[in-house]
Amino acid sequence: MQEKIYQVAVGLIPGVGAATTKTLISYCGSAEQIFKTPKGKLKNIPGIGDVTVENIQNKSVLDEAEAIVKRAEKLDTQLLFYTDADYPNRLKQIPDAPTLLYYKGSAHINPPKSIAIVGTRKATEYGKSVVRKLLEELTIYKPTIISGLAYGIDIQAHRDALELGLETIGVMANGTNIIYPSVHKNTAFKMIEQGGLMSEYTFDSVAEPMRFPARNRIIAGMADVTLVIEATQTGGALITADIANSYNREVMAVPGRVTDAASEGCNNLIKQNKAHTLTSAADLIELLNWDLAPSQTTNKQLILTDLDDDELAIYAVLTDNQDIHIDELSWKSQLAMHKISSVLLQMEFKGIIKALPGKKFSLR
């Protein structure tokens, strides 16, 4: 519990955001050590100035953090710090991942397969029927369905997933103890039993407009592919698609009639080559290679069997991030700076990675 208090407290330090937190963890080794590192050493960390050091030394945030941890226990809510083993692995690979997540639910948040489904809040019967048909066809693969619990396509995806026996996670722009919109409470309660609710915002936080685009990055980051079922020319669904593209995650869009306002966004995504065309589950299955037999062994799988846990962590990061700087590689792999250098050298000797100019690394 003590380490969890320190983890929560880091996010409460004035002026310390996700990027700074990750830098501090890389150099200090843990959240607790951030508060126990002497001023002089803190000032030597790149990007850490006098004001930040003073804020860290003022440990009043620890009391607030302790109250949050105790409340989380009462509300049966997990506090997932980005260095925790059960933090979503897919999120660890995105540059702006939240350092702390609030999660209430039963679903495994590192599932073998996951799909984000987003779309307009004013879904048509066509859009709703497409969601149902796709999920029916994908049920055999048991993907976890990620969406935002909003009106329209979002809530349709959650409800259809529940009916079909699929786990579904709702990512919210407010605290997990608040259901917004409130009319979706019954669905949300069912999701806790067959999925979960997730947020980066602490308890009692309300859904403010600026928080929805931030919420969308978690939806995109949690999924292997983002499906845009219906979308107008503007709106959150297109923001989520753009974010997914920036993460080099797959995006698919369902085409619609050129006269339908609810399909304009999807049609434009396809026309601008920002999304693959999605007309049936077969398109998704082929794109993600879900049709390959599990027994098919690849060279990559053979390599993985020869790596220890630290090497596997680095390999996973480099698979999605080529030409990555050692500092970024450190926080994404959760290996402290004093340790990662020797692991990288060992992997280089094995011929798995190669060192690049500027302290960058990539897979061979």
Top CATH class of the largest domain: Alpha Beta
Q: Helix/strand/pairing class, anyone? A: alpha/beta
Order of strands, widest sheet: 1-2-6-5-4-3-7-8-9
Largest sheet: 9 strands, mixed
Report the radius of gyration as a whole number of Å.
Answer: 21 Å
Characterization of the model:
The chain is of the alpha/beta class and 364 residues long. It has three domains: 2-74, DNA polymerase, domain 1, CATH 1.10.150; 114-287, 3-Layer(aba) Sandwich (Rossmann fold); 299-363, Arc Repressor Mutant, subunit A. It has 18 helices and twelve strands. It has helices at 2-10, 18-28, 31-36, 39-43, 50-57, 61-74, 89-92, 125-138, 153-163, 185-193, 211-222, 236-246, 264-271, 281-287, 299-304, 309-320, 326-333, 337-349, and strands at 78-81, 100-105, 114-118, 144-147, 168-171, 195-199, 225-228, 250-253, 276-277, 324-325, 353-356, 360-363. The chain has a nine-stranded mixed sheet, sandwiched between helices. Strands 10-12-11 form a three-stranded antiparallel sheet. Helix 16 crosses helix 17. The radius of gyration is 21 Å and the shape is globular. The relative contact order is 0.10.
